[in-house]
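Database export, one record per block. Field names are fixed; values are copied verbatim from the stored entry.
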Amino acid sequence: MPSSDHLHSPEAKEEALAWSIKQDITAFIADHQGINLQTLSEMLGATKFLKFIPSKSRDSSSIWHLEVSAFVEELKAQHRLRAIKMPQAIENTNGTILPPDPGEIATGSGQGIERKAIIPRTRYLIEVLTELRLSYSVHEGRNTPNMLRQLSYQAFEVPEKGLVILVNNEEGNATFIVHHAEENNPTNNWKYFSQLTKDQLKASGQNKVTVVLFNKSEEEWKREIAHVIVNGPTDKEPHKPTTHLDEGVKSEFKRRTVESALQELESAFQKWQALPEEIRGQFNIYWLDRNNYTALTVWCRRKKTEGSSLESLVAKSTNEELKESFQRQERENPFTETSALAKLEEAFQKWQALPEEIRGKFNPLWLENSGFGSLYRWCIRKTSDGQATNVSLEDLVAKSANEELKASFQREERGEREQPYTETSALAKLEEGFKKWQALPEEIRGKFNFAWLENNGFSGLTNWCRRKTSDGKIANMSLDALVGRSANEGLKKSFVKQEHEETYTETSALAKLEEAFKKWEALPEEIRGKFNSEWLDNNGFKGLLSWCKRKTPDGKTANIPLEDLVAVSVDAELKKSFKKR
Protein backbone atom coordinates (compact mmCIF):
# COMPACT_ATOMS: atom_id res chain seq x y z
CA MET A 1 0.00 0.00 0.00
CA PRO A 2 1.48 3.39 -0.96
CA SER A 3 2.43 5.73 1.87
CA SER A 4 0.52 8.96 2.48
CA ASP A 5 3.63 10.89 1.35
CA HIS A 6 3.52 9.08 -1.98
CA LEU A 7 -0.18 9.84 -2.41
CA HIS A 8 0.55 13.56 -2.05
CA SER A 9 3.72 13.62 -4.15
CA PRO A 10 3.77 15.71 -7.39
CA GLU A 11 4.04 12.50 -9.43
CA ALA A 12 0.97 10.99 -7.80
CA LYS A 13 -1.00 14.20 -8.31
CA GLU A 14 0.00 14.27 -11.98
CA GLU A 15 -1.09 10.65 -12.41
CA ALA A 16 -4.43 11.43 -10.77
CA LEU A 17 -4.95 14.44 -13.04
CA ALA A 18 -4.08 12.41 -16.14
CA TRP A 19 -6.53 9.70 -15.13
CA SER A 20 -9.24 12.30 -14.46
CA ILE A 21 -8.77 13.94 -17.90
CA LYS A 22 -8.93 10.56 -19.66
CA GLN A 23 -12.10 9.66 -17.78
CA ASP A 24 -13.77 13.01 -18.52
CA ILE A 25 -13.07 12.90 -22.27
CA THR A 26 -14.01 9.22 -22.59
CA ALA A 27 -17.24 9.72 -20.62
CA PHE A 28 -18.14 12.77 -22.72
CA ILE A 29 -17.74 10.78 -25.96
CA ALA A 30 -19.80 7.91 -24.53
CA ASP A 31 -22.56 10.27 -23.36
CA HIS A 32 -22.77 12.07 -26.72
CA GLN A 33 -23.30 9.32 -29.26
CA GLY A 34 -22.78 10.51 -32.81
CA ILE A 35 -20.62 13.47 -31.78
CA ASN A 36 -18.30 14.76 -34.50
CA LEU A 37 -14.90 13.60 -33.25
CA GLN A 38 -13.13 15.83 -35.76
CA THR A 39 -14.67 18.87 -34.07
CA LEU A 40 -13.86 17.53 -30.60
CA SER A 41 -10.25 16.68 -31.49
CA GLU A 42 -9.71 20.13 -33.02
CA MET A 43 -11.24 21.78 -29.95
CA LEU A 44 -8.89 19.85 -27.62
CA GLY A 45 -5.83 20.29 -29.85
CA ALA A 46 -5.71 16.53 -30.40
CA THR A 47 -6.15 16.18 -34.19
CA LYS A 48 -2.98 14.08 -34.55
CA PHE A 49 -4.60 11.43 -32.33
CA LEU A 50 -7.75 11.17 -34.46
CA LYS A 51 -7.57 7.95 -36.52
CA PHE A 52 -9.76 6.83 -39.40
CA ILE A 53 -10.57 3.13 -39.21
CA PRO A 54 -11.91 1.84 -42.55
CA SER A 55 -14.57 -0.85 -42.59
CA LYS A 56 -13.37 -4.44 -42.88
CA SER A 57 -16.55 -5.77 -44.41
CA ARG A 58 -19.72 -4.65 -46.13
CA ASP A 59 -21.64 -5.17 -42.90
CA SER A 60 -19.58 -2.68 -40.92
CA SER A 61 -18.96 1.02 -41.48
CA SER A 62 -15.81 3.09 -41.31
CA ILE A 63 -15.35 5.00 -38.07
CA TRP A 64 -13.25 7.74 -36.53
CA HIS A 65 -11.44 6.97 -33.27
CA LEU A 66 -9.82 9.42 -30.86
CA GLU A 67 -6.85 7.93 -29.02
CA VAL A 68 -7.53 9.64 -25.72
CA SER A 69 -4.83 7.87 -23.69
CA ALA A 70 -2.11 8.71 -26.20
CA PHE A 71 -3.24 12.37 -26.27
CA VAL A 72 -3.14 12.70 -22.47
CA GLU A 73 0.21 10.91 -22.24
CA GLU A 74 1.73 13.36 -24.71
CA LEU A 75 0.43 16.30 -22.67
CA LYS A 76 1.96 14.68 -19.62
CA ALA A 77 5.31 14.19 -21.34
CA GLN A 78 5.28 17.84 -22.43
CA HIS A 79 4.38 18.95 -18.88
CA ARG A 80 1.21 20.45 -20.39
CA LEU A 81 -1.37 18.67 -18.23
CA ARG A 82 -4.17 21.05 -17.22
CA ALA A 83 -7.62 20.25 -15.87
CA ILE A 84 -10.25 20.23 -18.63
CA LYS A 85 -13.95 20.85 -18.08
CA MET A 86 -15.87 19.38 -21.01
CA PRO A 87 -18.57 21.47 -22.73
CA GLN A 88 -22.24 21.05 -21.97
CA ALA A 89 -22.82 20.45 -25.68
CA ILE A 90 -21.10 20.58 -29.08
CA GLU A 91 -23.28 21.53 -32.02
CA ASN A 92 -22.29 21.40 -35.68
CA THR A 93 -23.93 24.01 -37.90
CA ASN A 94 -24.10 23.98 -41.69
CA GLY A 95 -23.32 27.68 -42.00
CA THR A 96 -20.04 29.57 -41.91
CA ILE A 97 -19.07 31.20 -38.61
CA LEU A 98 -17.70 34.67 -39.42
CA PRO A 99 -18.10 34.78 -43.24
CA PRO A 100 -14.99 36.13 -44.96
CA ASP A 101 -14.37 39.79 -45.66
CA PRO A 102 -13.38 40.56 -49.29
CA GLY A 103 -9.69 40.16 -48.49
CA GLU A 104 -10.24 36.65 -47.13
CA ILE A 105 -11.61 35.13 -50.35
CA ALA A 106 -9.25 33.17 -52.59
CA THR A 107 -9.34 33.78 -56.34
CA GLY A 108 -8.96 30.96 -58.84
CA SER A 109 -8.84 27.38 -57.57
CA GLY A 110 -7.29 28.29 -54.25
CA GLN A 111 -4.59 25.66 -54.73
CA GLY A 112 -1.09 26.48 -53.59
CA ILE A 113 -2.19 28.46 -50.52
CA GLU A 114 0.44 27.97 -47.84
CA ARG A 115 -0.89 26.10 -44.82
CA LYS A 116 -0.62 28.16 -41.66
CA ALA A 117 0.61 27.01 -38.27
CA ILE A 118 -1.90 25.71 -35.73
CA ILE A 119 -2.18 27.34 -32.29
CA PRO A 120 -4.51 25.35 -29.98
CA ARG A 121 -6.35 28.45 -28.76
CA THR A 122 -9.56 26.49 -28.16
CA ARG A 123 -7.78 24.22 -25.69
CA TYR A 124 -6.18 27.21 -23.99
CA LEU A 125 -9.63 28.83 -23.75
CA ILE A 126 -11.11 25.64 -22.25
CA GLU A 127 -8.32 25.64 -19.62
CA VAL A 128 -9.18 29.25 -18.71
CA LEU A 129 -12.92 28.50 -18.50
CA THR A 130 -12.13 25.44 -16.37
CA GLU A 131 -10.01 27.44 -13.94
CA LEU A 132 -12.76 30.06 -13.71
CA ARG A 133 -15.33 27.28 -13.13
CA LEU A 134 -17.52 28.47 -16.03
CA SER A 135 -19.83 26.22 -18.04
CA TYR A 136 -19.89 26.60 -21.81
CA SER A 137 -21.27 25.18 -25.07
CA VAL A 138 -19.53 25.04 -28.45
CA HIS A 139 -20.84 25.61 -31.98
CA GLU A 140 -18.76 24.52 -34.99
CA GLY A 141 -19.20 25.96 -38.48
CA ARG A 142 -18.12 25.04 -41.99
CA ASN A 143 -15.86 26.97 -44.33
CA THR A 144 -16.63 27.46 -48.01
CA PRO A 145 -14.10 26.20 -50.61
CA ASN A 146 -12.99 29.69 -51.68
CA MET A 147 -11.98 30.87 -48.20
CA LEU A 148 -8.32 31.60 -47.42
CA ARG A 149 -9.09 30.55 -43.84
CA GLN A 150 -8.70 26.76 -43.73
CA LEU A 151 -10.08 26.05 -40.26
CA SER A 152 -13.54 27.09 -39.10
CA TYR A 153 -14.14 29.47 -36.22
CA GLN A 154 -15.81 27.94 -33.17
CA ALA A 155 -18.37 29.86 -31.13
CA PHE A 156 -18.12 29.33 -27.36
CA GLU A 157 -21.24 30.36 -25.43
CA VAL A 158 -20.62 31.28 -21.77
CA PRO A 159 -24.14 32.06 -20.43
CA GLU A 160 -23.09 32.90 -16.87
CA LYS A 161 -21.03 35.83 -18.15
CA GLY A 162 -23.26 36.69 -21.14
CA LEU A 163 -20.36 36.06 -23.51
CA VAL A 164 -19.88 34.62 -26.98
CA ILE A 165 -16.21 33.88 -27.71
CA LEU A 166 -15.33 33.32 -31.39
CA VAL A 167 -11.99 31.55 -31.68
CA ASN A 168 -9.95 29.94 -34.47
CA ASN A 169 -6.89 27.73 -34.09
CA GLU A 170 -5.25 28.82 -37.32
CA GLU A 171 -2.36 31.27 -37.13
CA GLY A 172 -3.28 34.86 -37.98
CA ASN A 173 -6.90 34.77 -36.80
CA ALA A 174 -7.94 37.05 -33.94
CA THR A 175 -10.23 35.98 -31.10
CA PHE A 176 -13.46 37.99 -30.72
CA ILE A 177 -15.22 38.26 -27.34
CA VAL A 178 -18.80 39.51 -27.61
CA HIS A 179 -20.19 41.03 -24.39
CA HIS A 180 -23.76 41.22 -23.06
CA ALA A 181 -25.05 38.49 -25.39
CA GLU A 182 -28.57 37.12 -24.81
CA GLU A 183 -29.28 33.52 -25.75
CA ASN A 184 -32.97 34.09 -26.54
CA ASN A 185 -32.57 37.39 -28.39
CA PRO A 186 -32.25 36.72 -32.16
CA THR A 187 -30.38 39.99 -32.70
CA ASN A 188 -28.00 39.54 -29.75
CA ASN A 189 -27.08 35.84 -29.57
CA TRP A 190 -24.27 33.65 -30.89
CA LYS A 191 -26.11 32.93 -34.17
CA TYR A 192 -26.45 36.63 -34.94
CA PHE A 193 -22.81 37.48 -34.23
CA SER A 194 -21.46 34.37 -35.97
CA GLN A 195 -23.00 35.65 -39.22
CA LEU A 196 -21.07 38.93 -39.10
CA THR A 197 -17.71 39.39 -40.77
CA LYS A 198 -14.61 40.30 -38.78
CA ASP A 199 -14.82 43.91 -39.95
CA GLN A 200 -18.47 44.11 -38.89
CA LEU A 201 -17.59 42.72 -35.46
CA LYS A 202 -14.83 45.28 -35.02
CA ALA A 203 -17.28 48.02 -36.03
CA SER A 204 -19.63 46.97 -33.19
CA GLY A 205 -17.60 49.06 -30.77
CA GLN A 206 -15.22 48.27 -27.93
CA ASN A 207 -18.00 48.05 -25.35
CA LYS A 208 -19.60 45.23 -27.34
CA VAL A 209 -16.66 43.33 -28.84
CA THR A 210 -13.11 42.88 -27.55
CA VAL A 211 -10.46 41.68 -30.00
CA VAL A 212 -7.58 39.62 -28.58
CA LEU A 213 -4.52 38.84 -30.70
CA PHE A 214 -2.14 35.94 -30.20
CA ASN A 215 1.18 37.68 -30.72
CA LYS A 216 2.80 36.51 -27.54
CA SER A 217 3.13 33.42 -25.33
CA GLU A 218 0.36 31.01 -24.41
CA GLU A 219 0.32 32.19 -20.78
CA GLU A 220 0.07 35.87 -21.76
CA TRP A 221 -2.81 35.12 -24.13
CA LYS A 222 -4.62 33.15 -21.42
CA ARG A 223 -4.08 35.97 -18.93
CA GLU A 224 -5.62 38.48 -21.33
CA ILE A 225 -8.58 36.22 -22.08
CA ALA A 226 -9.20 35.66 -18.34
CA HIS A 227 -8.90 39.42 -17.72
CA VAL A 228 -11.59 40.22 -20.32
CA ILE A 229 -13.89 37.42 -19.13
CA VAL A 230 -13.73 38.64 -15.53
CA ASN A 231 -13.70 42.41 -16.15
CA GLY A 232 -15.77 42.89 -19.29
CA PRO A 233 -14.97 45.19 -22.23
CA THR A 234 -11.46 46.59 -22.46
CA ASP A 235 -10.46 50.10 -23.42
CA LYS A 236 -8.15 49.01 -26.24
CA GLU A 237 -8.85 47.19 -29.47
CA PRO A 238 -7.25 44.83 -30.29
CA HIS A 239 -6.41 43.97 -26.68
CA LYS A 240 -2.66 43.92 -26.20
CA PRO A 241 -0.35 45.23 -23.51
CA THR A 242 1.63 48.27 -24.65
CA THR A 243 4.46 50.23 -23.10
CA HIS A 244 4.02 53.12 -25.55
CA LEU A 245 1.20 54.83 -27.41
CA ASP A 246 0.11 52.74 -30.40
CA GLU A 247 -0.47 54.40 -33.77
CA GLY A 248 -4.22 54.86 -33.21
CA VAL A 249 -3.66 56.65 -29.93
CA LYS A 250 -0.83 58.71 -31.44
CA SER A 251 -3.02 59.92 -34.28
CA GLU A 252 -5.86 60.70 -31.85
CA PHE A 253 -3.32 62.54 -29.68
CA LYS A 254 -2.28 64.68 -32.65
CA ARG A 255 -5.89 65.40 -33.62
CA ARG A 256 -6.89 66.66 -30.16
CA THR A 257 -7.03 70.44 -29.89
CA VAL A 258 -7.74 72.73 -26.94
CA GLU A 259 -11.30 73.12 -28.26
CA SER A 260 -11.92 69.36 -28.59
CA ALA A 261 -10.28 68.74 -25.20
CA LEU A 262 -12.64 71.27 -23.64
CA GLN A 263 -15.63 69.49 -25.21
CA GLU A 264 -14.35 66.19 -23.82
CA LEU A 265 -13.94 67.73 -20.38
CA GLU A 266 -17.52 69.04 -20.56
CA SER A 267 -18.77 65.58 -21.51
CA ALA A 268 -16.91 64.06 -18.54
CA PHE A 269 -18.38 66.66 -16.19
CA GLN A 270 -21.93 65.91 -17.38
CA LYS A 271 -21.30 62.21 -16.78
CA TRP A 272 -19.99 62.98 -13.27
CA GLN A 273 -22.96 65.26 -12.51
CA ALA A 274 -25.41 62.49 -13.47
CA LEU A 275 -23.99 60.17 -10.78
CA PRO A 276 -25.55 60.09 -7.28
CA GLU A 277 -23.71 62.53 -5.03
CA GLU A 278 -23.06 59.92 -2.38
CA ILE A 279 -20.97 57.72 -4.69
CA ARG A 280 -19.43 59.94 -7.36
CA GLY A 281 -16.53 61.28 -5.30
CA GLN A 282 -14.55 64.36 -6.32
CA PHE A 283 -14.39 65.62 -9.90
CA ASN A 284 -10.63 65.56 -10.39
CA ILE A 285 -7.84 63.99 -12.41
CA TYR A 286 -8.25 60.65 -10.64
CA TRP A 287 -11.95 60.48 -11.47
CA LEU A 288 -11.17 61.22 -15.12
CA ASP A 289 -8.47 58.54 -15.21
CA ARG A 290 -10.80 55.92 -13.71
CA ASN A 291 -13.73 56.74 -15.97
CA ASN A 292 -12.26 56.27 -19.46
CA TYR A 293 -10.83 59.79 -19.90
CA THR A 294 -7.18 58.71 -19.58
CA ALA A 295 -6.40 59.89 -23.13
CA LEU A 296 -7.52 63.40 -22.13
CA THR A 297 -5.43 63.48 -18.95
CA VAL A 298 -2.38 62.11 -20.81
CA TRP A 299 -2.80 64.85 -23.42
CA CYS A 300 -3.00 67.49 -20.66
CA ARG A 301 0.14 66.17 -18.98
CA ARG A 302 2.09 66.20 -22.25
CA LYS A 303 0.83 69.65 -23.21
CA LYS A 304 1.52 71.12 -19.78
CA THR A 305 4.55 73.04 -21.02
CA GLU A 306 2.37 74.58 -23.76
CA GLY A 307 -0.11 75.93 -21.23
CA SER A 308 -2.70 73.17 -21.60
CA SER A 309 -2.49 71.46 -18.23
CA LEU A 310 -5.72 70.08 -16.83
CA GLU A 311 -5.98 73.01 -14.41
CA SER A 312 -5.56 75.54 -17.23
CA LEU A 313 -8.09 73.65 -19.35
CA VAL A 314 -10.60 73.87 -16.50
CA ALA A 315 -9.87 77.59 -16.18
CA LYS A 316 -10.68 78.06 -19.90
CA SER A 317 -14.10 76.45 -19.51
CA THR A 318 -17.13 78.74 -19.61
CA ASN A 319 -19.00 76.35 -17.32
CA GLU A 320 -18.88 77.89 -13.86
CA GLU A 321 -20.27 74.73 -12.22
CA LEU A 322 -17.45 72.71 -13.73
CA LYS A 323 -14.86 75.15 -12.43
CA GLU A 324 -16.41 75.17 -8.99
CA SER A 325 -16.64 71.37 -8.81
CA PHE A 326 -13.13 70.58 -10.05
CA GLN A 327 -10.74 69.59 -7.26
CA ARG A 328 -7.00 69.71 -7.58
CA GLN A 329 -5.06 66.97 -5.86
CA GLU A 330 -5.03 67.66 -2.15
CA ARG A 331 -1.55 68.30 -0.76
CA GLU A 332 -0.41 68.46 2.85
CA ASN A 333 -1.62 71.96 3.61
CA PRO A 334 -0.01 74.10 6.32
CA PHE A 335 -3.26 74.40 8.29
CA THR A 336 -3.92 76.84 11.05
CA GLU A 337 -6.19 75.78 13.89
CA THR A 338 -9.05 77.74 12.32
CA SER A 339 -8.60 76.31 8.82
CA ALA A 340 -8.12 72.81 10.27
CA LEU A 341 -11.43 73.14 12.11
CA ALA A 342 -13.10 74.30 8.89
CA LYS A 343 -11.64 71.27 7.07
CA LEU A 344 -12.90 68.96 9.81
CA GLU A 345 -16.39 70.48 9.46
CA GLU A 346 -16.23 69.95 5.70
CA ALA A 347 -15.30 66.30 6.22
CA PHE A 348 -18.14 65.80 8.69
CA GLN A 349 -20.69 67.28 6.29
CA LYS A 350 -19.45 64.96 3.56
CA TRP A 351 -19.69 61.96 5.92
CA GLN A 352 -23.22 62.97 7.02
CA ALA A 353 -24.36 63.15 3.39
CA LEU A 354 -23.47 59.48 2.81
CA PRO A 355 -26.12 56.77 3.34
CA GLU A 356 -25.84 55.38 6.87
CA GLU A 357 -25.49 51.82 5.64
CA ILE A 358 -22.27 52.50 3.73
CA ARG A 359 -20.52 55.43 5.40
CA GLY A 360 -18.96 53.56 8.30
CA LYS A 361 -17.61 55.38 11.35
CA PHE A 362 -16.49 59.01 11.38
CA ASN A 363 -12.95 58.47 12.62
CA PRO A 364 -9.26 58.91 11.68
CA LEU A 365 -9.36 56.01 9.23
CA TRP A 366 -12.37 57.49 7.40
CA LEU A 367 -10.63 60.86 7.13
CA GLU A 368 -7.46 59.25 5.79
CA ASN A 369 -9.33 57.23 3.16
CA SER A 370 -11.83 59.91 2.11
CA GLY A 371 -9.72 62.76 0.81
CA PHE A 372 -8.83 64.32 4.17
CA GLY A 373 -5.49 62.61 4.69
CA SER A 374 -3.64 65.92 4.78
CA LEU A 375 -5.74 67.05 7.75
CA TYR A 376 -5.13 63.79 9.58
CA ARG A 377 -1.37 63.94 8.90
CA TRP A 378 -1.23 67.58 10.01
CA CYS A 379 -2.86 66.58 13.31
CA ILE A 380 -0.45 63.70 14.02
CA ARG A 381 2.74 65.44 12.87
CA LYS A 382 5.48 65.39 15.48
CA THR A 383 8.85 67.03 15.93
CA SER A 384 12.07 65.01 15.82
CA ASP A 385 11.94 64.55 19.60
CA GLY A 386 8.39 63.16 19.45
CA GLN A 387 6.47 66.27 20.54
CA ALA A 388 3.16 67.15 18.85
CA THR A 389 3.66 69.92 16.29
CA ASN A 390 0.04 70.91 15.84
CA VAL A 391 -3.35 70.18 17.42
CA SER A 392 -4.20 66.50 17.84
CA LEU A 393 -7.31 65.27 16.07
CA GLU A 394 -9.07 64.55 19.38
CA ASP A 395 -8.32 68.06 20.62
CA LEU A 396 -9.49 69.54 17.32
CA VAL A 397 -12.78 67.67 17.64
CA ALA A 398 -13.15 68.92 21.21
CA LYS A 399 -12.72 72.52 20.01
CA SER A 400 -15.52 72.16 17.45
CA ALA A 401 -18.79 73.97 18.20
CA ASN A 402 -20.68 71.24 16.34
CA GLU A 403 -22.15 68.91 18.95
CA GLU A 404 -23.22 66.35 16.35
CA LEU A 405 -19.65 66.15 15.08
CA LYS A 406 -18.38 65.55 18.59
CA ALA A 407 -21.00 62.87 19.25
CA SER A 408 -20.28 61.10 15.96
CA PHE A 409 -16.49 61.08 16.12
CA GLN A 410 -14.86 57.77 17.07
CA ARG A 411 -11.34 57.82 18.43
CA GLU A 412 -10.20 54.40 17.34
CA GLU A 413 -11.05 51.99 14.55
CA ARG A 414 -11.17 49.05 16.91
CA GLY A 415 -14.83 48.26 16.57
CA GLU A 416 -17.04 47.54 19.53
CA ARG A 417 -15.64 46.58 22.89
CA GLU A 418 -16.12 42.94 23.78
CA GLN A 419 -19.59 42.72 25.22
CA PRO A 420 -20.89 40.06 27.62
CA TYR A 421 -23.47 38.66 25.19
CA THR A 422 -25.94 35.92 25.91
CA GLU A 423 -26.95 33.55 23.12
CA THR A 424 -30.19 35.55 22.66
CA SER A 425 -28.50 38.95 22.49
CA ALA A 426 -25.74 37.56 20.26
CA LEU A 427 -28.39 36.25 17.83
CA ALA A 428 -30.09 39.65 17.89
CA LYS A 429 -26.76 41.34 17.10
CA LEU A 430 -26.15 38.89 14.26
CA GLU A 431 -29.61 39.72 12.84
CA GLU A 432 -28.77 43.41 13.07
CA GLY A 433 -25.56 42.80 11.12
CA PHE A 434 -27.42 40.83 8.46
CA LYS A 435 -30.01 43.59 7.97
CA LYS A 436 -27.24 46.16 7.59
CA TRP A 437 -25.51 43.93 5.01
CA GLN A 438 -28.79 43.34 3.11
CA ALA A 439 -29.38 47.09 2.85
CA LEU A 440 -26.11 47.59 0.95
CA PRO A 441 -26.02 47.53 -2.88
CA GLU A 442 -25.13 44.01 -4.08
CA GLU A 443 -22.19 45.21 -6.15
CA ILE A 444 -20.32 46.60 -3.13
CA ARG A 445 -21.39 44.65 -0.07
CA GLY A 446 -19.22 41.58 -0.62
CA LYS A 447 -19.78 38.34 1.27
CA PHE A 448 -21.71 38.16 4.54
CA ASN A 449 -19.06 36.45 6.63
CA PHE A 450 -16.79 36.76 9.64
CA ALA A 451 -14.58 39.37 7.94
CA TRP A 452 -17.56 41.55 6.98
CA LEU A 453 -18.87 41.57 10.55
CA GLU A 454 -15.40 42.31 11.87
CA ASN A 455 -14.95 45.29 9.57
CA ASN A 456 -18.43 46.78 9.79
CA GLY A 457 -18.95 47.54 13.45
CA PHE A 458 -19.63 44.04 14.81
CA SER A 459 -16.17 43.11 16.06
CA GLY A 460 -17.58 42.89 19.60
CA LEU A 461 -19.77 40.01 18.41
CA THR A 462 -16.97 38.26 16.52
CA ASN A 463 -14.63 38.65 19.51
CA TRP A 464 -17.29 37.11 21.77
CA CYS A 465 -17.72 34.22 19.32
CA ARG A 466 -14.03 33.40 19.09
CA ARG A 467 -13.13 33.96 22.76
CA LYS A 468 -11.44 30.90 24.24
CA THR A 469 -10.82 29.61 27.73
CA SER A 470 -7.32 29.23 29.16
CA ASP A 471 -7.19 25.62 27.92
CA GLY A 472 -8.04 26.62 24.35
CA LYS A 473 -11.74 25.71 24.24
CA ILE A 474 -14.49 27.95 22.84
CA ALA A 475 -15.78 30.00 25.78
CA ASN A 476 -19.11 31.00 24.25
CA MET A 477 -20.40 29.93 20.84
CA SER A 478 -18.60 29.91 17.49
CA LEU A 479 -19.99 32.17 14.77
CA ASP A 480 -20.85 29.16 12.58
CA ALA A 481 -22.82 27.64 15.45
CA LEU A 482 -24.57 30.95 16.12
CA VAL A 483 -25.60 31.20 12.46
CA GLY A 484 -26.89 27.62 12.70
CA ARG A 485 -29.17 28.63 15.60
CA SER A 486 -30.74 31.53 13.66
CA ALA A 487 -34.37 31.15 12.55
CA ASN A 488 -33.66 33.42 9.55
CA GLU A 489 -33.21 31.17 6.50
CA GLY A 490 -32.04 34.10 4.39
CA LEU A 491 -29.27 34.78 6.89
CA LYS A 492 -28.19 31.12 6.93
CA LYS A 493 -28.17 30.93 3.14
CA SER A 494 -26.19 34.17 2.76
CA PHE A 495 -23.57 33.47 5.40
CA VAL A 496 -20.24 32.33 3.97
CA LYS A 497 -17.73 30.60 6.17
CA GLN A 498 -14.23 32.00 6.33
CA GLU A 499 -12.43 31.46 3.03
CA HIS A 500 -9.71 28.86 3.39
CA GLU A 501 -6.56 28.48 1.35
CA GLU A 502 -7.43 27.54 -2.22
CA THR A 503 -5.35 25.86 -4.88
CA TYR A 504 -4.83 28.42 -7.60
CA THR A 505 -2.89 28.45 -10.84
CA GLU A 506 -1.32 31.68 -12.02
CA THR A 507 -4.27 32.22 -14.39
CA SER A 508 -7.00 31.59 -11.80
CA ALA A 509 -5.10 33.62 -9.17
CA LEU A 510 -4.94 36.52 -11.63
CA ALA A 511 -8.66 36.14 -12.31
CA LYS A 512 -9.34 36.26 -8.55
CA LEU A 513 -7.18 39.36 -8.23
CA GLU A 514 -9.10 40.97 -11.12
CA GLU A 515 -12.38 40.06 -9.37
CA ALA A 516 -11.14 41.74 -6.20
CA PHE A 517 -10.06 44.87 -8.08
CA LYS A 518 -13.43 45.08 -9.84
CA LYS A 519 -15.18 44.89 -6.45
CA TRP A 520 -12.87 47.58 -5.03
CA GLU A 521 -13.42 49.87 -8.06
CA ALA A 522 -17.21 49.59 -7.61
CA LEU A 523 -17.00 51.06 -4.12
CA PRO A 524 -17.42 54.82 -3.64
CA GLU A 525 -13.97 56.43 -3.55
CA GLU A 526 -14.67 58.05 -0.22
CA ILE A 527 -15.11 54.73 1.59
CA ARG A 528 -13.11 52.09 -0.21
CA GLY A 529 -9.66 52.87 1.14
CA LYS A 530 -6.47 51.63 -0.50
CA PHE A 531 -6.32 48.60 -2.77
CA ASN A 532 -3.66 46.54 -1.01
CA SER A 533 -3.04 43.27 0.81
CA GLU A 534 -4.90 44.53 3.88
CA TRP A 535 -7.99 45.31 1.79
CA LEU A 536 -7.86 41.83 0.22
CA ASP A 537 -7.49 40.27 3.66
CA ASN A 538 -10.53 42.12 5.00
CA ASN A 539 -12.85 41.80 2.01
CA GLY A 540 -13.23 38.10 1.34
CA PHE A 541 -9.98 37.37 -0.54
CA LYS A 542 -8.01 35.85 2.32
CA GLY A 543 -7.63 32.58 0.38
CA LEU A 544 -5.83 34.36 -2.48
CA LEU A 545 -3.60 36.22 -0.06
CA SER A 546 -2.72 33.01 1.80
CA TRP A 547 -1.92 31.27 -1.49
CA CYS A 548 0.44 34.11 -2.46
CA LYS A 549 2.18 33.97 0.94
CA ARG A 550 2.50 30.18 1.14
CA LYS A 551 6.04 28.87 1.59
CA THR A 552 7.70 25.49 1.24
CA PRO A 553 9.09 23.68 4.35
CA ASP A 554 12.53 25.16 3.63
CA GLY A 555 11.14 28.70 3.64
CA LYS A 556 11.05 29.36 -0.10
CA THR A 557 8.06 30.94 -1.83
CA ALA A 558 5.74 28.17 -3.02
CA ASN A 559 3.61 30.22 -5.39
CA ILE A 560 3.61 33.79 -6.75
CA PRO A 561 3.98 36.69 -4.29
CA LEU A 562 1.15 39.21 -4.47
CA GLU A 563 3.39 41.99 -5.83
CA ASP A 564 4.57 39.70 -8.67
CA LEU A 565 0.98 38.69 -9.42
CA VAL A 566 0.04 42.36 -9.72
CA ALA A 567 3.03 42.92 -12.00
CA VAL A 568 1.92 40.27 -14.54
CA SER A 569 -1.65 41.61 -14.73
CA VAL A 570 -2.59 43.21 -18.05
CA ASP A 571 -4.81 45.71 -16.22
CA ALA A 572 -2.85 48.96 -16.04
CA GLU A 573 -5.42 50.50 -13.67
CA LEU A 574 -5.01 47.60 -11.24
CA LYS A 575 -1.23 48.02 -11.25
CA LYS A 576 -1.55 51.75 -10.76
CA SER A 577 -4.06 51.39 -7.92
CA PHE A 578 -2.29 48.64 -5.98
CA LYS A 579 -0.36 49.87 -2.97
CA LYS A 580 2.17 47.85 -1.07
CA ARG A 581 1.56 47.74 2.62
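Remark 1: The chain has 33 helices and ten strands.
Remark 2: Residues 236-253, 329-333, 412-418 have pLDDT under 50 and may be disordered.
End of record.
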